[in-house]
Amino acid sequence: MYKTLEQALLDLEKAGMLKRVHQEVDPNLEMAEIARQVFEANGPALLFEKIKGSPFRGACNIFGSEERLQFLFRKSMKGTQTAVLFKSNPVEFFKHPNPFKLLTAAKAGICALPRRSGSIKDFQECSLKDLPQLKSWPMDGGAFVTLPQVATRPGEKSSIMTTNVGMYRIQMSGNDYQQGKECGLHYQIKRDIARHHRKAIEEGRPLKVSVFIGGPPSHTVAAVMPMPENLSELVFAGMLGGRRFNYFIHNGYLVSSDADFCILGEVGPSLKPEGPFGDHIGYYSDKHNFPYMRIEKVLCKKNAIYPFTVVGRPPQEDTLFGSFIHQVTKPMVPASIPGLHAVHAVDPAGVHPLCLALASERFLPYAKPEDREPMEILKTANALLGFNQASLSKYLIIAAKEDEMESGRKIDVNDVPGFFAHVLERMDFKRDLHFQTATTIDTLDYSGSSLNHGSKLVMAAAGIKRRDLRCDMTDLQSLTLPEEFTAGGDLRAYIPMAGVLVIEGPAFNAEKRKDLMEKLAGAIAQWKYRDNYPLVSLIDSRPVLDESLKGDNLNDFLWLTFTRSDPAQDIFGWNEHVENKHWSAEAPIIIDARIKPHHQKALTIPEEIKTRARAILKEEGILGG
User: Contact 532/499 with Cβ under 8 angstroms?
Assistant: First the structure.
């Protein structure tokens, strides 16, 4: 398998999956826009041969298609999946034993063990400013490393198997950082690096941090793997790469022998402003205080290549990361949470804001379908909200697998309209909405009350069908709404899928919201089809949203509704009331997904940058312009 990033890129080029950009490109917005346009056009990986202000080459869109991912890991994917199944569910693994499967798992196991190899003599020294100073979005606070492998250990003498490797963004310039001597280290809540940092602080010492960039593609993928807490990502890097992770220790720092670049430095307890940064949910994350590294040394290989990615509103290249990881780890989640059959973090909704799950409802096996209600699936939902990255889910919608028999059709979490329809047909809105009103949410989600703080909602469905859903635009002809929703005399609404209605409304006004939502709920309550559309999303008018929208009603609904709402603050309903601390309402429920004052700005790029990127891609013969 691949020993270096360049070896992998040349293999892609030989297979017709990579093109070279020969002319000089600017890392300030231009390179990122080129990457976005190529990804959107389902284009090839790119190798930039000349980058303004840097002696190094760069590469992007390496993981930007299912075809390339399967090609890069074609020799090791089966073995990795077999080893994951063995680790997750030995009983299932041995149900159908065969010598080849055992041999494959054993080979992957050998590759999983890290190996001491190499030395500092294999590297040259450079400075942080020599690296391509990539800025992806106009309001970014500086240049960022977007594919870092950030490695830490609990202590300098800790076993290599205690190493955590995560993809925590690195800010190389801007703000209050001393240029070339410091860089920002942004890690979100529920990240394993926090345990190592806490231990170092308690012991009164700085945490030694190594940031690897490049190397074999499996190393980059391993950094985004949701590994169990006490299992190192280095193990997965070796398995997926079909080659043991090579490393050496230099002045107490872990160094990846195969990386193109290594940034070595210490992190103390003090903080500095980091950001803003255009993030994967589709908005900027604001400037906040985060840890930072005091850089001791920056290492590079001769002829090193700087890989990067660009994040923004899904889908982007990291979407492919997510689907690939799901292929590999599919056996892990159900094996870890009894009764869970399937889970889907919905990418068009920003991943963490919306999660769909299917689980068993077996607490009352003797119950008739008409008497079945969410019981065991609520236990499973709570377990899921405490499990790994699924714990960052904001809206968790869960259904009972036993309902498949009654409905006569398979419930598929990956079929978003079908799954929503199944749940909305069965939910009792007086009983099946379960809020966590003051809890932690994803650091990148600004819909809550403050950074890292907000609410969650579990929507659970089990039992027989309660209502029929409709999906007919002519139904709107009989809907009469207050004048605030009919500017110019026209109702501005659409139906993205069965049972869901999206209504455009006036700009958010905190003082007027309570009265406005009561008027809206009251008006819909008089509509003869109100029970056929049990979920309503209130969004801003189209002129306000134009730059944010993709013209895809379903995906626009998912993104706007679940990234711009906090369940406890923004959900309303007809006849809503609280009894025994439980909130309930009659259908429909209304999610206020309008832009609020505390929300962050959606990501946009100047037209002149788009035009320049198109011109370069046309001149290079990569895209047709």
Answer: yes
* C-alpha dist (Å) from residue 419 to 222, 348, 496: 31, 15, 14
Distances from the Cα of 345 to the Cαs of 100, 401, 499, 561, in angstroms? 33, 18, 21, 15
**pTM over 0.90, yes/no:** yes
Residue 374 one-letter amino acid = P
Q: Other CB atoms closer than 10 Å to residue 465's CB: what's the count?
A: 14
- Tokens representing 471 are 């999906």
Using alpha carbons, list the distances in angstroms from residue 456 to 25, 63, 311, 462, 562. Answer: 44, 32, 25, 20, 11
Which residue, among 377, 422, 430, has the nearest Cα to 400 in the 3D structure? 377
Give the separation between CA 492 and CA 601, rounded to whole angstroms.
24
> Which helix (H) or strand (E) is 274 found in, with range?
strand 261-274
Give all strands (DSSP E) within 27-163, no chain letters.
45-48, 57-60, 115-116, 124-126, 144-145, 148-152
Given a contact cutoff of 8 angstroms between Cβ atoms, the answer to whether 484 and 506 are in contact is: yes
Q: Is 409 left (phi over 0), alpha (psi -120 to 50) or beta?
A: beta
Neighbour-count burial for 104-124, b at 16+ CB within 10 Å, e otherwise: bbebbbebbebeeebeeeebe
Asked whether 579 and 524 are in contact (CB, 8 A), the reply is: no
Picking from 209, 185, 183, the residue whose alpha carbon sits closest to that of residue 196 is 209
DSSP assignment of 363-429, as one string?
A: S-TT--GGG--SSHHHHHHHHHTTSGGGGG-SEEEEEETTHHHHHTS---TT-HHHHHHHHHHH--T
What the block records as the tokens of 141 is 């606070």
pLDDT above 70: residue 293: yes
Q: Output DSSP code: residue 113.
A: S
Token pair for 169: 């963004």
Residues 212-256: pLDDT tens digits? 999 999 999 999 987 766 678 998 899 889 999 999 999 999 999
- Average the pLDDT over 574-578 and give the result: 93
Q: Which two tokens stand for residue 453?
A: 């703080």
Angle between helices 30-40 and 607-619 (to 10 degrees): 70
Res 405: pLDDT: 79
Residue 325 and residue 224 in contact, taking contact as beta carbons nearer than 8 Å = yes
Q: Residue 529's closest CA among 586, 573, 484, 476?
A: 476
